[in-house]
Amino acid sequence: MFIKEIEFVNFKSFGKRVKIPFYEGFTAISGPNGSGKSNIIDGILFALGLSGSKTMRAEKLTDLIFNDAKSKQPEFAQVTITFDNSDRKAPVEADEFEISRKIKQTKSGYYSYFYFNGKAVSLTEVHELLGKAGVTPEGYNVVMQGDISQITAKMSPTERRKIIDEIA
Amino acid sequence: MFIKEIEFVNFKSFGKRVKIPFYEGFTAISGPNGSGKSNIIDGILFALGLSGSKTMRAEKLTDLIFNDAKSKQPEFAQVTITFDNSDRKAPVEADEFEISRKIKQTKSGYYSYFYFNGKAVSLTEVHELLGKAGVTPEGYNVVMQGDISQITAKMSPTERRKIIDEIA
Amino acid sequence: KRDTFMEAYNGINENFTQVFFELADGHGELILENPNDPFAGGMTLHAQPKGKNILRLEAMSGGEKSLTALAFIIAIQGYRPAPFYVFDEVDQNLDGWNVERVAERVEKSAKVAQFIVISLRKPMLEQSDRIIGVTQLEGNTSITGVKSP
Amino acid sequence: KRDTFMEAYNGINENFTQVFFELADGHGELILENPNDPFAGGMTLHAQPKGKNILRLEAMSGGEKSLTALAFIIAIQGYRPAPFYVFDEVDQNLDGWNVERVAERVEKSAKVAQFIVISLRKPMLEQSDRIIGVTQLEGNTSITGVKSP
Ligand SMILES: Nc1ncnc2c1ncn2[C@@H]1O[C@H](COP(=O)(O)OP(=O)(O)OP(=O)(O)O)[C@@H](O)[C@H]1O
Ligand SMILES: Nc1ncnc2c1ncn2[C@@H]1O[C@H](COP(=O)(O)OP(=O)(O)OP(=O)(O)O)[C@@H](O)[C@H]1O
Ligand SMILES: [Mg+2]
Ligand SMILES: [Mg+2]
Q: Phi/psi zone of residue B109: left (φ > 0), alpha (ψ -120 to 50 degrees), beta?
């Protein structure tokens, strides 16, 4: 199982519809400061429900909707991840599947929907599916910018031991 | 006024007596990870009393004394900074002067002494002398490793305004 | 419960020692505060880069902390692999030599799991299988293409 | 008291706009929350890299935050210079192009004050007047020498 493609629509600095192809093995991402590299990771965390808004550098979820202060802000943002599942690592009977998340701004606030192959599902269902494939909600497989030298140093001994508890 | 030389004796990873020459203008320091580059800055903060032990990655000041777990730990550590003062930026009538600090471990704890040209002085006297030369105790002129992307982002608006207060 | 914990702990500890040796030529170990009743205590990471004594995590340099953390993450991957890993500039504290070593280790791990690594450092980009270029124009992010290093 | 504050604020703000333009081709400004009574409010930094809208500090990327912080420090230096500045890997978040720009700006500032800059990045080392090499053997730090870039 691996990420095959990610589609961003009005998510952070992705003002248009942008599709990025991904591959197995070792893929590097590079580009100038401020070009949107970390926003790709924020998109992965957002779509898979792996974190609260605090780690996406947004005060509230609607800050994730594209806003260039020139044109009218779109009403919604969406990130869709297509997984290749030909090794059936995820408990899904198909070579591919999609997990998607959309937030929509309304007058009174916002709505947040998760989708599995186009069908609305809950965050818990998404976590269950990913958990069986080895992706835990704490997401030790995702290291955010600047966190690497904090991960081990800032944790308490009990927090470190708890990592093993979860894996066991 | 500029830093002309720094001598380290038993300070952190400087197990022997090491003298480092410095110059006016732009001097870079480079070397492998863990070789002792940041310890040089810790030495400057230590000698000039610019920070508490928390920013020198030491739990207590005696952690700053060289310790390689092979030989007997020395009783004291000392850092001496020689300043070139030919432009008389510091209120001292001499082309050079030295500020030094020594910590000595005893059975019941430790002693910390500051010296100005070999004569024992207090931390307040050191701060007064440096303040007149434009070096403030908060040390905005020293940026520790990892702090650069935090400096402006982590401060509150009031803290930022206070920086201007001090300078005014 | 204690048995499954100890099995995971031993497996990850063995990997950690192996990976830390590969990355930093040193000796690394995961130490339980209370080995008889692991749930009553925590766990610390001991790392001893070549030629040095054992370091407290707090006393390490920026680069040493990064290497230790990476060794820990890769050690967990060896025991219980996730399908994909995403690293955002994990090499920013590393000197050129250590960037190369980490890149080689990632390349090795990428044979069994997908690794997506954001980096600004040449030795990391050169070791990858392909580089996705990102740019922005008038605040709009787009992809410049996918090329081989 | 208000007058000396406003004099410092205006001087530093002017410098900040100038340096942020040099470093990031953008428009930077220090904004007082309460300009009539500055002590009753705080101060925020507005930075607008080329082609983008004004950024909240928290929404910036790692590199943009570093550039903004460096512009602020250099702006203060221009108004009230300290005799020496010590920077420890301030370029770790920057792409190669921005490392070069910061290095050039440090070289310019180093004409009026001493700059001691720890760095692992080539463009920074190449711009310096001299490089002090540091190494360690058996846990003992020593200097390998002083060379010109
Ligand atoms: N909702 C939004 N609408 C438009 N732009 C946004 C939004 N949220 C964030 N951004 C922009 O995204 C940019 C940051 O992108 P990102 O953090 O991905 O950069 P990066 O490529 O990781 O850079 P670095 O190399 O410095 O880490 C900021 O300049 C910010 O203006
Ligand atoms: N009291 C001490 N006695 C001996 N060694 C010490 C002492 N305190 C710290 N050290 C050593 O200093 C080393 C860290 O040095 P320092 O942080 O200066 O490295 P650095 O050159 O800045 O590396 P990096 O490039 O990774 O930031 C550690 O390996 C630690 O073992
Ligand atoms: Mg980034
Ligand atoms: Mg360092």
A: left
